[in-house]
Design brief:
about 550 residues; about 65% helix; 24 helices; mainly alpha
Length: about 550
């Protein structure tokens, strides 16, 4: 009967436990440092993460005693861990929040999983065993990164152990600095002198305060409305490590919610595979590294896809607000606004434009007109020319840049100059932008089910992100997400192998590789990304009757 509770199969309980164990370290480390700012320091990041995992995992073993049992056991575990490891008031408050989140997941999630989950283990025990191994790896990886968020000296726990750049890089440093400059009302917060000490610019003046240590200052090139997103972090001004932790937690939750919403929205045969793979994507190195460095790209991608879902569910106000926010923060989501226009979805387009105007107005009210005029007159031309990225022509910048703009710089590094690489890059970028617009028009005219719509949107987001003169690997996150939707079509072993191999083929760089070889591999990665995204954007909808 409709409305009756669904029996919790072992697959449902196991999946809920996996989700709880992935979210628990994110929630714990997102709250622990901020709580310490208010209640005083106590305990260690490692103990907080271990306690959070214990609380999340215990729910699977006590569900048979009733829905409230995980909460009761969780509270007792939180108190015990606080006393045993001297976590203090900050630790107890953090773990009680983890109890709430994990208990809610254990009570809410199993009832909302599709019926296809039941019996999955019996139907293929080998795949189930492999899934469990990968899932455990995802939990361990997420927990390790969370420890590094709580303790930046624990560099052995970061997403890429041994990689010096990711040990000290934090995109959030740029967001915090820009927010502070905007609140101070400085003239042209995008001007280079405000950013001395960041990559490619002169070092900070002697004696200058560097509040982000052990992290280095990053460059800032975002539009002013993005500062509204970062504004809440001002509550923790003066404690960058607490700001970093809170940002990690918020972005992790946004990504997780986006994965869930999209996975439950897509339809068609075997659509449950997308949901099955979502936790593995969340615990993958590319996602965790993006969360670790604090770049907004992951959250922006998730929010943009949620906007697509909101439009389809006839919630244009929610969709328009989200699409306007991500477009005015990252610019590249504007490609989906073009799709709305091509599809003559005038209402959604106008609502999105209205929210965009409102956000622009709010940013002017909060920060004045100077940030907006400086962005349009100073920062935007520098973004187009590549001057906003002074590190682009360094060896590391050349080797890690996946944008078509950087092809000329790579060829020069490899001994095949085509003239001034900056001028070549600008020409390539203009031609590429025209090509992306054309692809968006073609893609918008395709029909298909929800899964087709989502994959085309993900592909377009990647293609649009590569318009930036400098696009590191996180620009491909939407393409990696699309593979979890593409897995629905897998019917043969070679197709599964192709999808599995695609990730390392796109992202893997052997350690210690000379910069010239890195540049060659980067060219391969760029070509593979462009080819795969183009194919997904314009391919014909999948025919389920004749796969």
């Amino acid at each position: 009967m409709r409305g009756e509770p669904v029996p919790s199969s072992r697959e449902r309980i196991a999946f809920a436990t996996l989700v709880a164990c992935l979210l628990a370290p994110v929630v714990a480390q997102g709250l622990w440092r901020p709580a310490e700012s208010l209640l005083g320091a106590a305990g260690t990041a490692g103990h907080v993460t271990l306690a959070a995992l214990g609380i999340a995992g215990s729910g699977a073993f006590v569900q048979r005693f009733g829905r409230g049992a995980p909460m009761v056991v969780g509270v007792l575990g939180a108190v015990a861990a606080t006393l045993a490891w001297s976590l203090g008031g900050a630790g107890l408050a953090t773990l009680l929040a983890v109890v709430g989140v994990a208990g809610w997941v254990h009570a809410w999630l199993p009832q909302r999983l599709p019926a296809a989950f039941d019996g999955l283990v019996r139907s293929n025990r080998l795949l189930a065993a492999l899934y469990v191994l990968v899932a455990l790896g995802s939990v361990v990886s997420t927990a390790r990164v969370s420890v590094f968020i709580g303790d930046p000296t624990a560099v052995e726990f970061q997403a890429l152990p041994g990689e010096r750049f990711t040990e000290t890089h934090s995109c959030l440093s740029a967001y915090v600095r820009a927010s502070a400059l905007a609140r101070r009302g400085v003239e042209n917060l995008y001007a280079d002198p405000w950013w001395y000490g960041s990559r490619g610019l002169p070092p900070s003046p002697d004696g200058a305060d560097v509040p982000f240590r052990p992290f280095e200052l990053d460059n800032f090139s975002y539009p002013p409305p993005f500062l509204l997103v970062a504004a809440p972090l001002a509550l923790l001004d003066g404690d960058f490590l607490a700001q970093r932790a809170l940002w990690f937690g918020l972005n992790g939750l946004v990504a997780a919610i986006g994965l869930w919403i999209v996975a439950r929205w897509v339809d068609g045969p075997r659509a449950h595979r997308t949901l099955v793979l979502a936790p593995l994507l969340f615990g993958s190195v590319p996602v965790l590294l993006t969360l670790q460095i604090g770049n907004f790209h992951l959250a922006a991608t998730a929010l943009t896809l949620v906007a697509l879902v909101a439009f389809d569910r006839r919630r244009p106000a929610a969709g328009g607000a989200l699409l306007a926010l991500t477009t005015l923060s990252k610019l590249s989501p504007a490609i989906l606004g073009l799709v709305l226009l091509v599809q003559r979805r005038w209402r959604e387009a106008w609502i999105t434009a209205g929210f965009g105007a409102a956000l622009l107005g709010l940013s002017v009210v909060c920060f004045g007109t100077d940030p907006l005029t400086s962005f349009l007159a100073y920062a935007l031309p520098r973004l187009s020319s590549g001057a906003a990225f002074p590190f682009m022509d360094t060896d590391a910048g050349i080797a890690t840049n996946m944008a078509p703009f950087g092809i000329g710089l790579k060829l020069k590094l490899l001994g095949f100059p085509l003239g001034d690489p900056w001028r070549v890059g600008a020409v390539l970028a203009r031609g590429y932008t025209l090509a992306v617009v054309g692809l968006a028009v073609v893609s918008a005219r395709r029909v298909g089910d929800r899964r087709d719509q989502a994959m085309r949107a993900m592909a377009l987001l990647v293609l649009a992100a590569l318009q930036s003169p400098f696009s590191p690997a996180y620009a491909t996150l939407a393409l990696l997400w699309a593979t979890t939707l593409l897995a629905v079509e897998v019917r043969r072993a070679w197709q599964a192998v192709a999808l599995i191999v695609f990730w390392p083929a796109l992202l893997f760089v052997p350690p210690g590789m000379p910069v010239g070889q890195q540049a060659v591999l980067s060219l391969v990665h760029t070509a593979l990304t462009l080819g795969a995204a183009t194919w997904l954007a314009i391919r014909a909808p999948h025919n389920w009757k004749n796969p």
